[in-house]
Structures are given as structure tokens and as C-alpha cells.
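C-alpha cells incoming
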């Protein structure tokens, strides 16, 4: 009998764990779905997992971040990198004006199908699927992350964002995605993204056990939640994030440390970076 490769067993175990986690989150959200009007049809984590918590509240909270920290305006032409099942597309459909436009892409086909089914029906909203290989989200993908060209032309976008996407990507992929962001942004355009930045404070939080996300050192400059599934959660050293931005020709204009570092009263959110393509 052929021995089942260990890597396959590990992947099966990881998938079973992540399915169980998604199911638990869906069950946890069930009372809200059943009791609050309009919530019954919200996307299920077992179809596509985008994170713990309340789909609508988190989407609204993230929109506030784009507006208050990123300076997003209703007339912006927006690119949503790794749009998932439309957690941001839905509040953006109410926020963007008819002069604005939205394009979201993701590597999971069923996420894009979900977005289209739930689409606000506005002509200026588009969703694209990209069959990109990511060991956690799309292990059978045919395009390498560091070779993918974003589905828009040079200087077409005034505001790009990636919420909880670079947390699943290795260094060369992030460097490439930021270079692509710079390509599609207009001069003066902005990109806001979230991630885990291991700077001096985060290093201390990890060493003391205070950090809520328990990253362990992995490859040079990177830290993971599990070495068996690195793309399940990756943090990068501060110096790497700065190099990714500088190499892409983007200027960091704001950095907000997130609650994952374990500072009291800050929740468990990721760090936020805001960068600009120089005019
Ligand atoms: C935690 S979810 C966040 C989804 C969405 N940004 C949100 O905030 O609701 C991470 C998403 O990144 C997508 N993703 C992973 N690797 C990607 C890549 N290389 N390019 C684009 N999307 C990617 C996944 O399919 C997944 O939908």
C-alpha cells in the first residue's frame, strides 16, 4: 500500500481545523442572523473564511478606517486587493458616489461568485477572479503571486487597499503587490493595508507573551503562527515592510499599531499602514 505523504496528511488536518473554526464562527453568529433584519443572507464562513466576527459591523468598521485614516473620498476609484466575499464592497456601495468606481479581485472563485451574487447592482462595481497560488487559500492556483498583474491599467486607481491579505503572503509576493499598487495608482494616490509589523514594541510583546497573535520566528525577517501552514498567518520585520514600500516607490505617511500587540483597550486588530505614490 502506498504511504500517504505526510504533507498531504498535514494539509488535510489543517483544512479540517480551519473548517471546524469556520463552522464554530457561523454557529456563533447564528442568533444575530436569525434575530436581526436583513442578516440571514450574510456570507457563511464555511463557504469562504474571512475572519472572526460580525460581517456587517466589521465591514463598517473597516470602511471607517479607510475614510478616517486613509482619507478615502466618495469620488475615489478604488481597488480592493483580496476582496474576499465583499465585506468592504457592501458598505462601499453606499459610500461611493456615481463618480466613484470599485474593482475587487480575489483568488478564491467562490468568494467572487458570492460578491457577484450579492453585488449592489451598480455599473461602477466590478469583481474579478485571479487563479493565483496561495498555499492557504488557493493551493491549486496556476499563477504565482509574484508574477500576477493587477487587473487594471497604469494610474487608473486613486485609492487601493488590502485588509488582512498581506497577513497571508510571503515577502516576495508582498513586495510585488506593492509594486503593482504603485503601478496602478495615480500620482498622489494612496494605498492602505493591514498586516503584522514586528518592530521593537511587537518584538517585546511577543517575547513577554503579551501579544495576542503568537508568532514564532520563521524564515529571515518573517514570523508565522504555524510553520506547517505559513500562509495561515505571517508577520514581517519592520525593516522588511519599509524596504517593500521603498522598493515600490511608495512613501509611508502613517503607521498605526494594532491591538494584536496586546496593549490594553486596543482590541485585537492588525497594524495599519498608509502609503502614497508621490505626485
Ligand atoms: C482574511 S481574508 C480578508 C478578505 C477581505 N479583504 C476582508 O477584509 O474582508 C483574506 C483574503 O485574501 C485573499 N487572498 C489571499 N492571497 C491572495 C492574493 N495573493 N491575492 C489576492 N487575494 C488573496 C483570500 O482569498 C481571502 O479572501
Amino acid at each position: 500500500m502506498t504511504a500517504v505523504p505526510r504533507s498531504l496528511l498535514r494539509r488535510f488536518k489543517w483544512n479540517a481545523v480551519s473548517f471546524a473554526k469556520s463552522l464554530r464562527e457561523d454557529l456563533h453568529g447564528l442568533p444575530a442572523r436569525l434575530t436581526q433584519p436583513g442578516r440571514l443572507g450574510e456570507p457563511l464562513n464555511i463557504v469562504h473564511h474571512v475572519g472572526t466576527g460580525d460581517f456587517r459591523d466589521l465591514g463598517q468598521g473597516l470602511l471607517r478606517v479607510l475614510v478616517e485614516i486613509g482619507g478615502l473620498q466618495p469620488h475615489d476609484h478604488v481597488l480592493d486587493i483580496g476582496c474576499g466575499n465583499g465585506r468592504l464592497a457592501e458598505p462601499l456601495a453606499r459610500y461611493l458616489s456615481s463618480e466613484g468606481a470599485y474593482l475587487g479581485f480575489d483568488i478564491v472563485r467562490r468568494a467572487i461568485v458570492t460578491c457577484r451574487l450579492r453585488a449592489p447592482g451598480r455599473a461602477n462595481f466590478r469583481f474579478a477572479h485571479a487563479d493565483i497560488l496561495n498555499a492557504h487559500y488557493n493551493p491549486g492556483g496556476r499563477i504565482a503571486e509574484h508574477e500576477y498583474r493587477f487587473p487594471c491599467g497604469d494610474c487608473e486607481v486613486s485609492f487601493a487597499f488590502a485588509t488582512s491579505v498581506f497577513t497571508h503572503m510571503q515577502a516576495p509576493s508582498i513586495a510585488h503587490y506593492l509594486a503593482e499598487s504603485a503601478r496602478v495608482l495615480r500620482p498622489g494616490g494612496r494605498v492602505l493595508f493591514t498586516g503584522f509589523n514586528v518592530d521593537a514594541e511587537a518584538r517585546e510583546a511577543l517575547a513577554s507573551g503579551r501579544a495576542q497573535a503568537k508568532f514564532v520566528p520563521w524564515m529571515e525577517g518573517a514570523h508565522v503562527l504555524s510553520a506547517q501552514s505559513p500562509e495561515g498567518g505571517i508577520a514581517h520585520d519592520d525593516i522588511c515592510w519599509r524596504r517593500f514600500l521603498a522598493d515600490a516607490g511608495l512613501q509611508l505617511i502613517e503607521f498605526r499599531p494594532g491591538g494584536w500587540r496586546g496593549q490594553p483597550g486596543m482590541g485585537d486588530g492588525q497594524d495599519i499602514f498608509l502609503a502614497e505614490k508621490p505626485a
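note: The radius of gyration is 19 Å.
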